[in-house]
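Homework-ish question, so no full write-ups if that breaks the rules, but can someone show me the predicted structure for this set?
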Amino acid sequence: AGELWRARWGDESQAGPMTTATSIMRVQQLLITQFDAIAGRHGLTFARYEALVLLAFSRGGQLSMGRIGERLMVHPTSATNIVQRLAAQGFVERVQNPKDRRGALAVITDTGRAAMEATTADLEAARFGLGMLGQDDQQALFSLLRGVRVAAGDFVDSADRPGS
Amino acid sequence: AGELWRARWGDESQAGPMTTATSIMRVQQLLITQFDAIAGRHGLTFARYEALVLLAFSRGGQLSMGRIGERLMVHPTSATNIVQRLAAQGFVERVQNPKDRRGALAVITDTGRAAMEATTADLEAARFGLGMLGQDDQQALFSLLRGVRVAAGDFVDSADRPGS
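A: Not a homework solution, just the prediction itself:
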């Protein structure tokens, strides 16, 4: 839509942020399409892969539904759907949460770990869709995005709960 | 997940692309949350707002469902859902496509244009969530993202169909 915008209002004032925001959205779309295709080779979507990564790196390979939603920054309903799909595939098991009678914990299985590792290897081989950027550009892009995240308060959560 | 990654594998080799890709996803998530909230003030989501922008800048303020899906890069089913919601709100009308008996065209209404303009004004006031970046950083970010898009062939389509 950046082009449409400029066509109407020229290159002045607000064209920058609009164009840049549109680019971020578009690159995210390009990456997620590629990542979904790669995860699909292992029976996963990128969202389900991310849930497996999260579980694999959590203590005991397990997390509550609430925490999964928080960490993946998705709606609790989406977290539940993701875990249900993974459970149906045998990639996680659902067990009762000892700290919460009504809550469930998702636990990654050996099959789940294997699917996660295989997807990771393929994503690494594809250099996470960013192989066209040299090391310096990679770093520059990360730093600029970090500035946006810091301003949006995105790092408060991880600072509060290191290793959570 | 970049932090988890580094914790396990250290800062070497593939941490760059993974961390940068994660940052792109995260910034997109931060922006879309903000844009949805802004569009929400005018009864829209950002996706429906984008559809209205697209229609507003199209010849006669109208487009086929297929073209809307293509231009917004969403599944045809999503395009249909978006237009149905907009039609229910009176922001677009659905008319028969004179070139395709079975197809429909979406036409933006005056109310739709007003909602689009009001949302645009609020997004501009919010500097599209990127007001923390100075002009140079804005430009640098856009250029880096453009490199990713060019490598992914993202500009072929618009070059083929200027003004479409």
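Now go work out the reasoning yourself. Hint: The first helix of chain B runs from residue 2 to 9.
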